[in-house]
## 1
Amino acid sequence: MFSAESSVVKSLANSRIRVLAMKLHLPFLPLDFIKRNSLMAQFEANTDPCQIWLLQSAPGYGKSLTLAQWFYQKKQQKQKVAWLTLDPKENDPLRFVTYLACAINSADASLANAALKALESDVSAQDVFQLLMNELTELDDTLYLALEDIHHLYQSEILELLEQLLTYTPKKLRLYITSRKQMLLPCARLLAQNKLKLLDENQLKFSQQETSNWLFKQLHENSQTSIVNKAQELSQGWVAGLMLLQKVQPDLNALDLQGDESILLDYFSQEWHSQLDEDEIRICGQLAIIGSASPEYLDVAFEQTNSHDIIKRLLTKHVYVSSNVSHSGWVELHKMLQVTLHEKSNREYQEAVYHRACNWLFDQGKHFRAVEMALKITDKQQAANILELCAENLIEEQGVAQLLSWKQQLPIEVMTNSPKLIIVFSWALVFAQQYDEAERLMLQIDRFFVPSQPLLNNEMSGQLFAIRAYIARSRGNIDNAIALCKQALEKLPLSNYAARTITFLNLSNIYMTLDKIILARDYNRQSFESARSAGSMPLELIAIHEQARIEQVKGNLMLAQKLVDQGLSLSARLKNRDHITAYGRLLIYKGYLCWLNNKVVEAEQYLLEGLQVSERCHDVYLIMGYVVLSNLKRHSNQLEEAYDHLAYAEAKCQSWSVPSFIYQPWLTTIRINLLIDQGKLESASRHLKKMYALIDNNPYALSPEHFPALRGLLDVFYVRAKSIGGFHKDALNLLEKKLANSGPSQQGFGLIFIYLMRALLRFQLGNEDEAIQDFRKAVEMSEHENCIMPFIEYSSGMGALYQHLPMNLKEKPFVQGILKHIDLSKVEGPNQAFAQARSVIS
């Protein structure tokens, strides 16, 4: 047998064979290891149908540590686990089967003994392997076997053995393989049979949350969302990339790359450059210049041939060139490699490349990409010409971030020389809530009105009316907004579905503000029909979101949930949904609805995903997400984090030049509730007084887009403050007044809060029978929709009320569900004084 190559050896109990022990050990998990729980869930969910897992990616994506976490979990569950780390020396067949047998024996000393005994005799590797296969086939318990770094194996006889193992995998064997390169074995049939599951860079990369967790372990504090976003943007979830970034910028608070950092250059020289030939390096350099590309695109842009074969080789090598997940057949470099490779070559040469690239993209109908490429050319007129052709699609997708970026790159004289560009950029500014700038830009269109072109005049007028209606609605000028919407619909041709759909949505939102739910539903239906008839999925999703909001306000939470789920399911048809405004709103609203059902973990997950999309899309709807996140933190008594979420939303709106009247009412109202939690009643009362004064000046100042019930929240917090301050009768009087003057919207969701709060106040004032009657009404309205959050919101100190409930009410499944989620014995909490003992009431 071969001799020990190190002093660290393993002597097997029943054999004279000695092997390197370290090759059979699971890797140690470092102290700053980030648990890959989502991948663990995938392993767990697919254990039965899938017998083989292949983790195949470039270095640094955490393949080995991910498997190690999974194997440690299995060891804790008393499962049999075997680990074998491979290196080039295992290309000796006898050595390979020796280590394989030893690894299996290390999992259970009763296993592989026949194979080990045969190894001490003069037998072939194939015979030993067959003994192992026979024994594994007879296993009663599951064995988890990891083969790490299988890319080192290339010897033909060993590849034949591996192919047998993959093709005839014993029933009780679960095989996990890691590789830095595409395996030299055919896997297509196994994938088709669902016997093998492949995880590549796209599945192994860190999620946004995992990047945030990694930053926390490095900085020992929660990072601002902007830092997490920047780290995720540069690293693209590449774990080794995060470590390299930390070496480049140790404090991680000012992340930026120039491309000439020696740390990056050294890393890519060793792990990337040394793996490639000249043609492959050339193609990577070209990708660094023009970004994501297909082989045909590269051939045209750089006047060459055979890019297809070279790209195919690059993909098999896993050298930081990966498939574009949203564009089939296209590839792209990792962001950090692209920055490193991008050279300031001859400007004339680059311009020629950009021209050819732009023309090809335009001919292929890829207008957005063509605009991006044209903007790299010195003469911006070509970009403006292409932009005119895709303006309608950009309005449809509400591609605000994209349009604002292009607006910064286009000279003002080019932009104002086209009525279409004036309109499309006015829409972009309106969607970004930059109303003053939008109005200034619209003034530039007057000179394009020509008496001899009435149809063009009508369309331009209709667009201007629609834009100004949107502005009027946001500023609270409701009557003016309605008149402008109607003028817009009269002028806009039926073919202009984008502007018409947005106008219908605006009217629906207006009538939501006015509590005219029937009209709101009617205009929402028209917006949906307009979007559906035009085949516009993004606008259709916006209409679904608005319909869900209407149903939620009416108290139909289950229907709202169903609509949101339908919208999210439809969004899967969009290739670029992570850049679509409607998708971000649906995710955030899904999180909000989960919160109402007290599904806290799900709520946070949806909110964080939605906030990523909204921030990417420059959508002010992110306020909604951070408000709900703030409430999640508040409910777990993390008030500092609750304030932080509101502060970040405020800072983001300020950085986007959003007028304060758009976001301050939201944030001030939510901060009032936090002040009440902290017992700062005087400060809360001052803010309440200011907010009510704001309403006196403008009745719709507290009806921002997407959340018209803000006035109702203010009243809820007023009641809380009055009750905690001991003014229970004042609080009760406000509730009585709200019930007497309630509009249509109060017939649903808002009414649950009113009845629940009045039940608590009446109980405190000694009116127990009336209190129980109100509580029963709140339960009846909530149980069908499983709207549990209001009861949890006012849980602290409610023990006495629950003790007085009639048995038939207390034993209702919904009430029992409430009791499972709250601890009524606790006296502390933000609502302690709200439900304090009656003895303190005068």
## 2
Amino acid sequence: IQAAAARYDNDPRVKWVVISAGMYGETIPAEDQYDACLSSNGLTSSGWVNTVNDITNIYHNAWHNKFLFIQYAPYFTSRLERRDFTDYAGSLGIGMKHNKLEVDGDDRVINDPGYLYYRSGQYDPMLTFMDQLPSAWEAYRQQFPNETVTYWSFLNALDKHPTYILINRLLITTLTPLEEDVLNFTNRYLGRTRSDTPSVWTALRETEYTWYPQRGNYSYWLYQNDGTPGGQTVPLWNVTSDPRGRYTRRTNGASGNPYMYFNVDDGYVFGGTNVVSITVTYLDQGTGSWQLQYDSVSDPNEVAFEVQKHNTGQWLNVTQVLSDAQFANREYGNDFRIWNGGDDDEIIHMVNVARLSHGEEVSVVLQPDGDYDGVTDTYLSSWEPDVNFGTLGRISVRPQDTFAGLVKFDLTGYLPPNVIVTEAYLDLYVQSRSNESNWMEADVYAMRRAWNEVQATWNRASSIMAWTVPGANGIGSDRSGVMLDRQRLDEVGVWERFNVTGAVAEWASGLANNGLTVRGSPNTSGQVSYDFASSEAIDLSIRPRLVFTYVLPVAPPTPTATATRTATPTPTRTPTPTPTGPPTATPTPGPSQTPTPPPPADKVIPAALALQPITVDGYLDDWSLGPGELLDRFTADYIHPRGVPEPADNSARVWAAWTPTMLYLAAHVTDDRLVADSLDIWRDDSLEFAFDGNLDFLLTGEDDHTFTVAIDGRVTNWGTIPVLDVERAVEIVSDGYVVELGIPLSVLQASGWTFGKQLGFNIGLHDDDDGGDWEHYMVWEGDSTVSQPQNYG
């Protein structure tokens, strides 16, 4: 232990360490069947606690710069051991790690002070030290047989405010779209505090277990209070087949409890004038109405909004931005409440409150109508894989991935950057179907690759770019794998509304708007096609609509305002010159076939020998990352005069590694706004790697390449030539994107590959902040990545 700490305690690749006290690194000496054997040979319960504490001391004395975790759930002969060795570890600042995430169970929270095993339940150590010490979970597929269990298990995990969750490979590789959403949601809240959490929330539930389970809701700094007069709720189970209805609560108007009361943690919001958004997920059951009332600056029971129900049987979300929330606990110690309106009761799944530095709510409706002409759409057909349908008046979808629709709304001038998108919906009008016997379900995903309305086919995104997988089925490169919404199609002459808030929020945060794809799910009663009206439909009123709401910054906060789109034509971009960095699709050869070698390069990127092949997946956890080489405004040899970016706007750090058969490159690009909306890869956010493989200072041979990698996964050679034999991955991260390439040495035609081998190398970085052409272009060495190899590093 001491030797490991001496080597890795200051190593940035190591973030935290588990204390391995017993079998499997947990706090148990052996399998339960050997307890009698161990006891008969002298091991006592107190002796085991002392042993665990001694081992904890060894770790604590050796490691000084890493989080430590005790894997505390199992014990030897008494659950009191669990309390004793976690109390000791907690007193040393050591975190709690539970290695079996589950949805519910007995022996979770033993909260009776008069009981022998008080504070010895499985969750008691996490709750005892919650928000004081880090905590972690382990999650395995065998604990999650279906989506509902997965959903509620991860809500259970977040209820303890964990720092980390370890997830086994089987679970990761078998995630359903809903489970991917669950994990993405979970990731947003790991390691957060009251000051930096994206929101606070509570998921309403009650346990079905009896022997010291965890009772009440799963909450994240938002608390529903059953003890308030008039606010006693009724727990429900298995309300609808939707995971949100597995556990829930309702008001109980018949017994004089028409309210649900909620209290925001005072450390998140308390007093003053605050701008917040509140989202309520409710079951649209019955035909009554309900209100949300809140503690405002002027009234402790101000009405935020009223919802009229329509008895659809669906779980729905309603979001409202409040610009004058005081939240000073003036509603019987609470901050807001739901009132059932005096008629039928309200069934609520979740309430989410986000603190905003914004105030004015703006609603936008976009539909091709003569004033707005920014919609492009088509559909892809596996039956006719090389035929384009972009001029037709319909967007067809069919189950089993037979037909897939594409639609994109140009949001230039309508969606400001970095605003909070509170809701967004794609409305499509069903104008016909192939038969009246069958229904189907349609799913919506965000597109990741740019496509051309009059060129896209089942096989190609455009005339010059193929889909990674036909039908735009390349997950991560052609489209997202996260389903935004699903709707059942079973009639014509109706509008279908798809919730696409996640996609529009991504576009507002800087991810490229490549539109949406509507695809038939496997769920259908039989073979059938449904046709939505396209932007070419003769009847303007049934063309596709995008309806969304965002919140603009204002100072000081003002009451919520609603605006609609004005009849302004789509802005036309002024043509801009082709970037100087890569001026043509053909490299400029060197000045002669026998040039004089230039002096040694003044910039060098060393490539480290990798002891085993690197997995090219966009994650750099299998790299031994040194300082790398930085490309930014201060280190670039050339910066295009269009603009000089600050490092937080655009910069890149690059690393290299090699094996006897491969060259690997990795880069972390810092980019505050991600855009990929052009067919020309050099006009989008992209990173260039240029090679003079034989170091002959010529760019005319098979050893010479300029590989360009865009944020949507496209890779080209010399700007236009598709690249097939290079492994590639792009991963979008919070501050930009990560690029990883694996290049066979045969591609570089580099002979004598061994220690000390040198190649000509250069880096270029494009930055597109607002669509169209790029704003910034930098080159690491020299002033070009497609010419002048004598100036390469």
## 3
Amino acid sequence: MGRATLWLWVLSAALAFGCDDGGSPAATPDPDGAMVDGGPPADMAPQADQAVPDMAPPPTPCAFPDECPGGDCIAGQCEFQVPARCLGNDASACGANEICGGFDNEYYCATECELAETCPTRPRPCSGNPDCPIRMSCHGGRCINSCTTDADCPAGGYCLQGECRRFPAELGGGEPAVGLPAGEGIHVGVAVRPMDYPLGVSAAGFGGREGPLNPYAFALGGSDSVHDRQDVRAVVIADADDTLVLLRIPLCWSTDYMLTLITEKVRQRTVSDGQPDGLDISGRLITLATHSHSHPGRFWNMVPETGFGAFGYGLFSPEMIDRYTTSFAETVVAALQGLQPGRVGWAVVDDFDPERRIHSDRRGESPELVDDRLTLLRVDDREGRPLAAVVGLAIHGTHMSRTWLTGDVAAGIEQVMTDRLSAQAERPVPVLFANGNAADVSPRGDDVSDVDHAKLQVVGHRVWAVARDAFAAIETAADMPLEVATRRVPVSYELLGYDASVPDFRSRQGEPQIYGAFQCVPDSREQDEPPYEDGALRCRINLATFLGAPVVQLHKTVLSAFRVGQLIVSTLPGEPTSGLGLALSALVEADARAAGWADARAVQFGYSQDHHLYFMLPDDWFRGGYEPSQGVWGWQLGPFLVEQARQTAALLLTAEREDTTSPILPTWWPDLLDDTVTPTPSPDAGRILADVGDAPRGAIQTLQWTGGHPGADQPRAWLEQQVDGAWVPGTRPGTPLPFDDTGFESLTSYLGDYEGDHTWRVRWELPFALPLGAWRIVVEGHTAGADGARQPYRV
């Protein structure tokens, strides 16, 4: 994410703890991240004569804590015994082998093993996590022993904010998506669909982003215009043994919760007589987020109660995630339904930008290094004519920071390459952008123009200049070997290799930061300065004391790898640095050579499948600065993910297809509140408010009209040309593609008030290559009827 977010960490912490609900006193972090607890008020002081009950209820078997109301499920039995309250070091109220104190609040009797955290701690009443000891969290009015990962829960259970819950039985199932082709060899499917979102939604990527306030913008300012139509692109490659679904999503990053929703929605949409349970694409779906900082946001359910959305992703919205993932699922289904005999091939171009005119190193704390590889995946029909392409490289999408929604440099690359390949093939050839190891890589193209949206196109043209010949030289084949592997892995303080007894990765108070920490190395240590050292970190937020429970998204992740011929692609869940990605490639290629794959190449797709913020190798982490400060798990996360990705890739080097089932389950959020905004009607939809007139090529034409509420309307605009007295859809000059609002020639804006005024405007720059003649702008959209149903209109 962009450097503009840095100051918001402290602000969000202050906002989260600035007030309380009038119940127990608010616990607040001090500047060092430690929890300060003033204790209970005087009239609630613990009573020394509260003894341990003489009689305990009979043993009750259990699997999950909610089976033990008022207690906890420990070792398969309900534990209802509450330790006695006590005063200071006065153990007179305690039972045998118990002492008073030892916990942060020092108000309960405890055994030695409870204090040493070597045995479960007995439940006790609570009104929030600050009332509970470390490694316990408050659920249903009582402190229970926190799970950290799904592996801590019984079979069929998952860990949600420290509590083991049953995973919904209705999720999952379906027929595994293998053996899909009806004939021999590789089959391919390609689909492009519009993304469903309301204009006005906050964009994700930059913290503190300014923009208009509206019903779709919370924690960050909203959007008001869309520069290039936000669409979803999918490529499916399948043979008799496996299926690969590559899904390019117009978002800043991916999340595991998205995978859960997309998979389930695909399953529901593929139910048929032959497949009564639908098609299961789990383990075969790979999301490719472009990492534009100007794509729609509000999709990350990351501790929404704390206000953290202000630092770059907006307040989580169930409506947004539902709309987005429905678009994603429908695109996948369209690609699956369009499977046809095909061919695939690939190329990796090393050192493709030696003059740094496309991308460059942005991290001065470590020696200059850029992952300067360009990866191309070519998808053809069986006759060898291109159907689609995937282009991968490392680059941040940070040229644009306005109130416009745009794919930034990713859109520039996709637009130029799609135009050129489509012109060559004389049919649409969509290009999917896959970002790489871009945590420390900035976009260039700024040596030609100071106009932000011009820089995007410069980058696109420069990438095409390199990719053109490499793409043409790719030899595709119908019998290219294909395999996909996906693993869900737990993440925790201990699994990362930290030792609480030392303790490793500790706060300035010496506390092990068992749930992670933010802003630990905020200041840059230049290359001639000594690096940070553990024990002298400056972590501003220790999540164990700040939240009191493990954060779901930080304690598991999903990694995938696929092999097409001898190309091995690993996904990485977040923002990897160039150095980390190149180190992983070296390890995977060495493993491949040892397994007999002499010509194997290994590359990475970042921002894929899940999001663990920034990660890098330890030496780089200890240099400090922006990138390591935006991570959560310190210096060990990078090596951990490298090893996990290496193990995933190793599954592709064997003759077997291993079972990757694990106790780590897909991310699931139950009981989300419905925040759907009800669109207001627009009875005058379709009325022109400001018409275009005659204009020369190179001019900007403007059309203004009454449309629908943004919750119902995503107007699509295109140019039509008059030919022999009839109006026909125009094509983008030099291509067979429709001349619509998917490119950079137009800007569509909402000028209304989200209530009774639904004014829209499109501004269109007429290219000099436009053929002479009569042209017009046509718009189609939808408005909400009085009954809530969407009604079409046309301008």
## 4
Amino acid sequence: MIEIEASYIAPFAMADPSKEKMRLAVLTSGGDSAGMNAVVRAVVKAAILKGCETWIVREGYEGLVRGNAEGHRHVSDKGICVSHKDVHFHEETFLHHLRYGDGELLRDGTGDHPGGRTLKGRYIVRVGWDDVRGWFAEGGTLIGTARSVAFRTREGRLTAAQNMIKEGIDALVVCGGDGSLTGADVFRSEWPKLVTELQSTGRITEEEAQKHAHLKIVGLVGSIDNDMSMTDLTIGAPTALHRICESIDNINSTAYSHSRAFVLEVMGRHCGWLALMASVSSGADFIFIPENPPDAEKWEDSMCKMIQSHRDVGKRKTIVIVAEGAVDSNLKPIRAEYVKDVLTNRLGLDSRVTTLGHTQRGGKPCAFDRIMPTLQGVEAVNALLEATPDTPSYMIGIRENKITRVPLMEAVEMTRQVSVAIAEKNFPKAMSLRDPEFSESLEGFFATSILESEPKLPHHLRMRVAIMHVGAPAGGMNAATRAAVRYCIRQGHKPFAVHNGFLGLLEDNVHQLSWLGVDNWMTRGGSELGTNRKLPDIDLGAVAAKFQQHNFHALLLIGGFEAFSALQILDVGRKYYPAFNIPLVHLPATISNNVPLTEFSLGSDTSLNALVDACDAIKQSASASRNRVFVVETQGGKCGYIATMGALAVGACMVYTPERGMNLDMLRNDVKFLKRRYGLDAKGKSEGRLVIRYSILRLVFSGYNRNSSTYVRNEIASEVYTTDVITKMFKEEEGRCLTLVLHLWAHTARWHSLSDGPCASGAPLAEVHELHRAPPRAVDQAVLPNSASASRIGGRHYDPRIDSEMGARAGDGGACGHEEPKREAFVVG
């Protein structure tokens, strides 16, 4: 885990004092995106912990070209006039790079003010630890970005090299799109010649030329379009998707009220990821993306036929999403206005166009756009420290939830091949160059949006599929149910809702679901079917009898660890009850993310965003009050996922989790840390401190605001050191601690605005595909060995018949939710 305050310096491998410190700068370039500030913050803090000196470059590459005017120099903030013997920090590196005083100017936007301290004439600015504190919660980029014309010229790059050498900088972190990263690689490749020319013309000395003979470069992808190859996600894309879905949610009410059709244009000049994921997440009726263009001669007929079929079954609203780069098969642009006219003229619909524009870029970053840039920023620093003149420039990405390094230009070249393939009308190649999830999501969209007149499967292969929610409600349950229901209907199966879990089954609370009946479930939180924690072993024989009575051929369980346990119980019960010899599938859905054998559960992302929103609001009070410690309690059972990831997302100083536990020594050190940290605050600006406690576990973090800090605690971190105990300890030692325990936070998380739409729609399709692995009419035959499966989001499914040790550990909420299974596994499609 990364962090954040001085108490976490010790675990990091500090640089060798005998070696010369690396001086690195970070800049943002190209279009802005949420999460860029988190990158800057992470790079600066990780670099300081590694013993480096850090700069930021204002206005992107343009700032490198302009450099610093003569006479301007960096002056430390005089607010850090404290006695080192009083605060007892061992790490001189931390103390010497705590604050340089320009952080507030950058954050408040007062850097160019003519009076007092100013950034005028300074584009390469020295920054310290506190200068970037809390930046991760801000949208856009506080250090500015620009598309530099001067840097595209060799003379401009020559000047940029001179400015960097003048400041002693020999490493550069660039956050931007493919154009910005290409510029960085060109700059690095030209560097030796640029240095030679600068020396020969007398612009730098021979000593400077020798000292800065090589330039280290690393790139991070900041792009809301998610258009970079060799990475699953780019910085800013998740937040942009949030903004789009929020807009669609707002439009849905007026569209329904007036029975209107809305055509939304979203960003995506060469990539349809935003349009596709927004369509999947919001339940749109039709979509236009550049990678999968419709037939030039037939698309109007196809669109009208699909939308009319939706209207024929009683649907009152129509949503069509168009990527700004959408074309037909002849590469003719498809404009939102033209689509609106087609809907109006051919179907007689009252149609409107909404262009979201730059609202997609704005707003505070979502949880994932705080966590991912933080992890990537730390990896970027590591990559620079390990770089040699012979290593390629790396791009930091994420693949299968792992932070990765890939050759920068290889990723850029593969990205450009998509545009070339589209220009050559080689659309299958364009799709193949996208992430596999892209194709799966497109398939999922069509499977849940097309209302087929005739089912795809013959009569003898059609099944009666029961769908049940088990456990606590979680965001995404209803969206998953909607996707499963519509896919079943498309194939010819009959989906049945089992209300109120296994208790409802015993009371015959079962009814068949319809295509239109689940239409509005996509954005609804909680559980429309009703759910509880009762397991089938309350009366296994009666449950089997109800399976036979309703003639179920398959069962889809959606829920958390209780649903996983129910799957195990039913699997064991096959020895005694033939009714359970049917395909059984579990889709993980829990805010705790504690289901074994899967990396993510539906609802966990929503819960993190609820925690972020709550802490952002709390820190406003902490900021205003100063000198305060807020204790926030979260949930999650005996799993520390929410606490740990929440700590990264809100900038925690420390985190207490059930997996790590806590003791008196740990608390004593934390209290000492608070005292020391207060002693280092700028005079007159003592920072507030915020503590977040998991209701079973505790997590502590430093707030984003310059006047607030937070500690996060898991609810089961310790049964002895409760939130009240921790608060009293802090209050006794500090005399300035305010307690705020969000006992209702978890319930708020369960009903928070959904952010799991893509996973909730795509994952159930794999689950229903899994049902097809069993033979036709499986209820009348012996079950296949692997026809009971627990889903792992990411495409892999596992046999739930794992040993008792694994099940026990999962029940205790240990780390087994992120371990590989100990027995047989198989891959689906």
